[in-house]
Amino acid sequence: MPKSFTIPKFYKRLFYAVSTVFLLLNLLLLFAVDDTPLSKVHQGLNREDIQRAKQLLHVGPEEFDQVKIVTLNQKDINIAVSYLLNHFVENTVQIQVSKGVIFVQIAVFVPETIWGRYLDFNFKLIQDGNSIRIESFKIGEISIPDTAANFLIPVIVAYTPLKKYWRVGEDYIKDIRFTDEGLQVSYLGSIVVVAKQLVIQQHREYPNLHLYQQQINDIVSRHDIAWRLSLNDLFQPLFLSAYRRSDEQSAVRENRAVIIAVGSYIYKQELRRYLPLGLVYSKEYQVFAYKRVDIPQHFIASALLAAVDASLLGERLGEDKELGDAESGSGFSFVDLAADRAGTRFGQTAVASPKQARELQLQMSQSKDYTIYMSDIKGLPEHMDEETFSVRFGGTASPLYRDMMAEIDERIAKLPLYRTR
What we know:
alpha+beta, six-stranded antiparallel beta sheet, three-stranded antiparallel beta sheet, single chain
């Protein structure tokens, strides 16, 4: 009779330990990750947001050594947090202010799993004298004790890419006070200069930027003036180059470089003083989509804001009259909003993850025209002055307005570049 095989106790214990850890990890993911975000998806900066940011951030040279005070309302805080985080991870933010307490919901987009693709963070911030306290911190359905949350959050920030922004805040922000409507921030005026230098330094991290700019120079030098220069005439060959020279580790960086390069051509004068361009283009043509020059302008502006740095570019692009608004004479336009939202989706997708960045490079390198990433504009109302817009749609909170925005979002979602995301 053959001798029976006995599993040593050590291996039994190891098996039980591994199984327990695996089970606990799955339970944690089950309660932490969800199919839908708890917070409403942020749709990106519109023209009013850009103008508001421009006003808030304006500091004259004579104010660099002065302490300034700015009051941020609930919408300002949502925009600022969303776009700061968006440079590191795709996210959606919902922040509410009530009687001096700030309620925060952040959903981070993670690779799709059997548990879902949203990691939700919920907490509230309370002012306690000169300090700010975190309470009721939750990751999904998992509650974190207040003591642990207040210890861990600063430590996590200090050891992530957010660290450089944290340090600037420590050096230049003098005081933060909660109000019933938002925040009152006292800061040294020179923080604006330091922030701009921080952004410029970030852009120097794109060693191939000048190659993409030189490629644009070659493209426009060979362009037949009898034909309109299409947005895709720039994007397709640049993303083909990006696909060939990058891998999954560098794809996000290269996509940002391509978007900066195209933005530097479309917004030539506006960005040259603020980005390390170093190139005078041999020929400067207007860039078209759907036989219009305003659509590429809106598209690339929003792509830049989503993929690169909203704090700097939002201030600069907000000054450019080509963005337009109802007060400029061009009128309110759902065509403009469609281009804005498509550009935001494009910029977010380009840097969402190494895998998505690589997939976007491949699809863009094979693109025949801009219709794979810029939706059709047929039937979208435009050229409405404030009175006409009010009579026809009744304001941005009306069902008619929301239906129109839903139609725009549906058109974008059906585009080949975004269909599988």
